[in-house]
Amino acid sequence: MNRVQQIRALFGTVVDLPTEAQSEALDVRANDDPELVAEVRRLLRASEQASEEGFLAEPLLGSGIIPGDRPVAEARPDVPGYELIDRLGSGSTGAVYRGRSISPLQRELAVKVLRPGLSEQARIRFEREQQMLTQINHPGVAQVYDAGMTDDGRPFVAVELIDGQPITSHASAHGLTVEERLAVMQAVCEAVHHIHSKGILHRDLKPENILVATSDGEHAPKVIDFGASIVIDDDAAAQTLGTRIVGTVAYMAPEQLESHGRGDLRMDIFSLGVILFELVAGSHPFGGRTEPLGAVVRGIQEAPLPRLDRRVPHGRDLNAVLAAACDKDPNRRYPSAQHLADELRRILAGRPVEASSPGVFSHVCAAGRRHPGLAAASVLVLVLVATLSVGLVLANRESNRQREAMRETVTVLVDRVLEEINELSGAHDARERLARLLLSRLDAMSPGADRDEYYLQRSRVLTTLSAIQLDRREIDAAIENRLIALSEFESHFGADPTSRVAREERIRLTILLGDAYNADKRRAEAFDAYEAAHASIMDALAASPDDASWLDGLCWSYERLTPFLVDSDLDAALRNCRERLRVARSLHDAAPENRLRLFSVGCAETWLGRVHFLRGDHDAALDMSRRAVETLGAAVDAEYDRFAFRSRWIIAKTHLAFTLLAMRSPDAFAALEDARWSAVRLMDENPDSYIATSHLRAILNVGAVAPPDVVPAHAAEAYRDALIAIGFDPPPPSKAPAWLVEP
Fold first, then answer.
1. Which residues contact 554 (CB under 8 A, 6 or more apart)?
2. pLDDT computed for residue 238 by the predictor
3. Mind giving me the DSSP string for 193-253?
4. Up-side HSE of residue 653: CA atoms within 13 Å toward CB?
5. Given CA atoms 347, 352, 356, 358 in this order, what sign does their dihedral have?
6. Which stretches does DSSP call E strand in 344-396?
7. Do domains 82-133+141-159 and 166-349 have the same CATH topology?
8. Which of 126-140, 413-427, 446-460, 616-630 has the lowest mean pLDDT?
9. What is the rounded distance in angstroms from the CA atom of residue 61 to the CA atom of residue 88?
10. Three-state DSSP class for 712?
11. Structure letter (DSSP) for residue 90
12. pLDDT of residue 359
């Protein structure tokens, strides 16, 4: 290795280290070769100076911090083996030409050539960029074909020629739909994830560095220009980036803009989020080219991300995804580009996204999920904030702007806050207060321009209120509110709505009305409602048999019909449960990260185990009940605070315990105790919940009359005392179920 190669090697080793680490690494070598170390230190100083002057911050195809075009006047170089046809673009470090290889393959490609007069440090960085590119082999990244020196001694690299446009320009020129734009962006995210998997941080992701070409009707994106990239340690939580600000400011993450900031691969996630926003909204979220540089920097570091126009398809989910990608705090950002790609895939497939909506409301709910013991208190604080927010808006209702602000506030509360607290254990009072508040505000508002949204919001608020009433056994009030919700809905949308959202909501309202009739023991009316909903779902599936949302609805429709089949035809009930489990598992296999799909599988397993039990097949019941407990336990582990998850987990545990009791298993008492303690904990958090109380009562009723060979006498006595404590008379031994006393 000659002297120049030694300098290059040592410089390449230390250039991207933090300043202190650079000094330590060079100090180790100083005694062995002080002249080598001195030369490398000189190059590092030159590197810092060049960076401060914007040398590395400029993109190859544009010369300003905000992308632009400023041609560099220079003679066309002679590149051995290639004919340069015309210049494609240029920047402060060099130029890119359209070229043609002379042999052996006569193909067009892009030839990137460093401009004359640059420092040795620039050459080293140029070579390191090409070394990075050779590690990447992905259809979404421009391919490197060749590298070498021009006749006048300048480095060049020959890469794949992308005959395309920047991603935003391509989308506009080809009139891409929002769905097509999301599909292109999903491919970009997967390409960036591949880049990251090689330990490479791009640091300059922007529309100009994502070119899209059209081939056979497909829109194929390619990530280009790795001039600002660095190799980063994937195992480190973060890496100090030093004082150099490298990249394009309008697309930088907040930590990337800070001197001595700490950053990792999530900086690129922020850039992807900004590009996604611009791609969907048609404008930069923080001004981009239309604002002064200082304003752009302040926007990135301080301003909240704007919400998309309400008319943008998938707007609610996209707002949540964009907020997660562009969070100022990298710890709240998506941990990888693949996570962002998966979220876009969910939107395109009509599945729920994992991100939650931005703002104080979701932060309070998130805190409750991290600390379940504080969930109820957190929700009460949330409702107080919500009440104040809406009250302040109502104080100035005469202003159109204030009325619009009120609508926006109500939309956030209905679409995200109400949805969040509907899931939380211990939130009955908070849910009721918020539901009544929202209903009063909706009553005070006119429907406005978006009448569909207004009536959908009323529907959701009324069904939330009725669910609380139902769980408190205020059944008449619950039925009345559900009838009102259905009547209002049909008065606006009609009895047979055409839009997808309206069809789904009408089916949901019909099922919920059936649930209320069922709770009131009006089984014929409940069955009619369930059958009508089931028929509507089957009609939808006839037109779209692979639609995941309709298939998910089919699963829950099967569940509603199963109890009626159990009463009349156990064989038909068994077939129904097996089909329901098959569909649920296929949906979960397609989206294993979706916890609601996992929950659906566990519920299906619970019911199938129950039907096996009623048919007298205890071995099959035991196997399926154990699976259900395991499946629902995994869902509860992931989201402990979800009331429905824990409620169904307790039911599965109870069915498992009852099966073991019927089999006189020595494990029966332990299983019964496990179910009891889970029920006690849920009831403690939800003392006014009929559902939570009924779980505990069912367990205590069986334990109180169980034979002493499976439940110790002292435990049976304790179960009887517990029933009295919660307000119920213990059953006499004569009321013990037949399966319990007749093994």
1. 534, 537, 538, 541, 580, 583
2. 40
3. HHHHHTTEE----SGGGEEEEEETTEEEEEE---TT-EE--TTSS-EE--S---S-GGG--
4. 24
5. positive
6. none
7. no
8. 413-427
9. 8
10. coil
11. E
12. 42
Q: Tokens 């508002």, residue?
A: 445
Residue keyed to tokens 């069915």: 655
What is d(CA 562, CA 608) in angstroms, rounded to the nearest whole number?
A: 10
User: CA 338 to CA 321: how far, in whole Å?
Assistant: 13
With b meaning 16 or more CB within 10 Å and e meaning fewer, what string describes 295-320?
Answer: ebbebbeeeebebbeeeeebbbbbbb
**Tokens 């409940």 sit on residue:** 526
CB 115 within 8 Å of CB 154: yes
Residue in this structure with the two tokens 């590298």, named with its chain if needed: 147
Q: Any idea which fold 166-349 has?
A: Transferase(Phosphotransferase); domain 1 (1.10.510)
73 three-class SS: coil
Residue type at 702 in one-letter notation: V
CB-count exposure of residue 605 (10 Å: 0-12, 13-18, 19+): buried
Mean pLDDT of 164-193: 93
- CB atoms closer than 10 angstroms to residue 106: 9
- Residues 276-317 have pLDDT tens digits of 999 999 999 988 666 776 678 888 888 889 988 878 888 888
CA-nearest of 353, 422, 326 to 382 is: 422
Assign 687 to helix, strand or coil: coil
**Which value, in Å, is the radius of gyration of the alpha carbons in the chain?**
32
Q: How far apart are CA 237 and CA 232, in angstroms?
A: 10
Helix (H, G, I), strand (E, B) or coil at 702: helix
Amino acid at 311: R
> What is the full DSSP assignment across 152-180?
TS-EEEEE-----EEHHHHHHHTT--HHH
Give the Cα separation of 516 and 466 in Å (integer).
Answer: 9
Domain extents in the chain: 3-52, 82-133+141-159, 166-349
In residues, how long is the chain? 743
How many whole angstroms separate alpha carbon 584 and alpha carbon 602? 9
Q: Residue 642 carries which DSSP code?
A: B
Q: How far apart are CA 264 and CA 241, in angstroms?
A: 9
Structure tokens at 461: 């608020």
What angle separates helix 375-394 from helix 428-444, to the nearest 10 degrees? 10
- Residue type for 250, please? A
Max CA distance (Å), the chain = 103
Neighbouring C-alpha atoms within 13 Å toward the C-beta of 572: 10
pLDDT band per the 50, 70, 90 thresholds, residue 53: very low
DSSP three-state, residue 83: strand
The structure tokens listed for 720 are: 């009887």
314 contacts 351 by C-beta, under 8 angstroms = no
Architecture in CATH of 82-133+141-159: 2-Layer Sandwich (3.30)
Residue 90, Ramachandran bin (φ over 0: left; ψ between -120 and 50: alpha; else beta): beta
Strands (E), 104-154: 108-114, 144-149
The structure tokens listed for 324 are 């997660």
For tokens 């009139």, what's the residue?
175
pTM of the model: 0.50
Helix or strand run (H / E) with residue 101? strand 94-101
State the alpha helices, DSSP H only, in 591-689: 595-614, 618-638, 643-662, 668-685
Q: What does the alpha-carbon distance between residue 659 and residue 654 come to, in Å, rounded to a whole number? A: 9
DSSP class per residue in 444-464: HS---S-HHHHHHHHHHHHHH
CA dihedral 151, 154, 157, 163 (to 10 degrees): -90
Among 32, 40, 38, 31, smallest CA distance to 7 is for: 40
